[in-house]
What does this fold into?
Amino acid sequence: MKTAFFPQGFLWGTATAAAQVEGAAKEDGRGASIWDVFTHRYGLDTPDVACDAYHRWPEDVELMKSLGIQAYRFSFSWSRILPEGTDRVNEAGIAYYKSLLAALKKAGICACATIYHWDLPQDLQNMGGFGNRAFVDWYLEYAKVLFDNFGDDVDMWITFNEPIAIYVGHALGFFAPGLRNEKYARQCLHHLLVAHGEAVKLFRSYGFANAQIGITVDVWHHYPDRPDDPDDCLLARLQNETQGYGMFLTPLFLGGYSQLHERYMREKGIYPQILPGDFETIRQPLDFYGLNFYNAIYDRADCKVELTGDQGGNFQKSVREGWDYDALFDVLDILKNKFQLQIPIYITENGMPGTMETPDENGIVHDLDRIEYLENILTRLARAIEAGANVRGYFLWSLLDNFEWSAGYTCRYGICRTDYNTLARTPKDSARWYAQVIKNNAVTGAK
Ligand code: NOJ
It folds into this structure.
């Protein structure tokens, strides 16, 4: 068995998000978010209670301390801070995050905070949400409240998490707010990017001594299933540039939309309204890039899964089963060579879902498949870093089993099990394994 070491100072963390763990949906003045409304409307599992982290966060900080976790990625809930989305600040919400940040500091755990992790206040949705250009101002107002209150107490700020979710929620209808209108979705994504750029400019105006800012974009790279088939190749390229990460990384790091993306949107009549100066605003220098990496997707043109809803976009399912660990090498290459990234990269999410996890008689989950997955990923990550990849840290998704959006509570990503009856948290085998990785700053085992 080989041991792969990580560089000194490599940051080891875990990640969660407000709507997925906090619960307390109606407590202390919190307003409704689009996920509250969406899940109740369609009779899905709701985030009403989730892991009840709103009350149990001290236990979670202790849990992280006991595992030696060095950084915690969480998100602010917009509707807990500004219940109607704008104007009225909810002091109880501010107090909650102040306590959490103080406890993290006391425990010596770095704070990485996502400003927006998918939970738009419903009142803003009622006014057109992301599709309204005013979204940029709403988001800036929210970001300002956060910067004013928490500024330098947060080590790493993330403007948006996985913007693709906004496409899924507006073009495909699988996520809140459950719309199927691709033209509208494209406009939403454009506004999101402008809001990101404006927030980075605002952040810079504070001149924080310690805090850094970046964005998290997930990269699910599409490969042609048959690399010598021109149709598969074209499909994979289209997916990467017009439905996946290219939609965001091109404007963020290269400027503008790619030619293929532009042409695609014009031909489909879904080109968004873009104001002069938008592309300059979007392309702000960042302190780091957050990569969410889980797997790759293999496309075949002759078994295309198209979802056409009303004017819905299309969504490609992989024709291959299993985990493509090596795709991580390609993704890091693409970031460096295609998107010219020179800033530090943090893996802001990586982990493995479990749908059939049963605890033993002592309540312990022996999630050996998760350990195998993580071992394979981390071994490759160490190799990539050794070969020059500028990756400075890794956040495992997730600290706890939690509310997995439209999949509700059926899908568990935690290294600690959440018992949804008692809300007790119990470390799984993977948690003990991860604690060892952190302690040794090294991973042993995978090929
Ligand atoms: C993507 C999202 O950022 C997170 O909220 C989600 O739970 C995980 N990945 C797993 O699907």
